């Protein structure tokens, strides 16, 4: 998402290639073996792992340093949000859901207090590129698996999400709802032991594990959907700014 934003600002030229890690193309296997995306290739140099990619963007990509601001309050506030979502999906109890809602309420309170369009000001930064994808996962996976919804009372948070949905940098980098859901289905299958080591004793288990990693045929044929609606009045949001 950082790179999409820089491309939108026309500071870089960006080409995105998606890879099916269950059936990666031969040239991908040759160059990267079992490395999982994201992989950044800049003038022939391949940078792997998120932290190294972020450092490269900050130091070597034109305009990249402008995205990386220092804000300890925001950094500490958003860092554990994703882990709380995963606990909700695993435990599926009200206590974990309440903890996630309380965390979202703290983010809502920060946005209300600051009164800015984004987390640290009226322009996007690296923290927005971290928070908004997590919020999207909460919306889509939370609703699908445990009927969790972000309360409409968190008006500043919804205003923030509304502004993010207007940006090509987010909408073009956001996975479809089906892909988000399938991601967590695979995680749940792995947790249950269906995705096991390739040295399984019985071939049947290998076949079961391989089958578990694939989307159902009807899911593959579905038209991709993207949840970008706002459950409160947009005009009211704009008038409150």
Automatic annotation (TrEMBL):
Topology relative to the lipid bilayer, per the entry, is:
Single-pass membrane protein
**CDD domains xrefs:** GST_C_CLIC (cd03198)
Q: Which UniProt keywords apply?
A: Membrane, Transmembrane, Transmembrane helix
- InterPro entries xrefs: Glutathione-S-Trfase_C_sf (IPR036282)
Single annotated GO MF: chloride channel activity
- Superkingdom is Eukaryota
SUPFAM superfamilies assigned to the protein according to its UniProt record, in alphabetical order: GST C-terminal domain-like
Primary subcellular site in the record, as a coarse category = membrane
Record's GO cellular component, any one? cytoplasm
Q: Where in the cell is it found?
A: Membrane
Q: Which family does it belong to?
A: Belongs to the chloride channel CLIC family.
Which protein is depicted?
Chloride intracellular channel
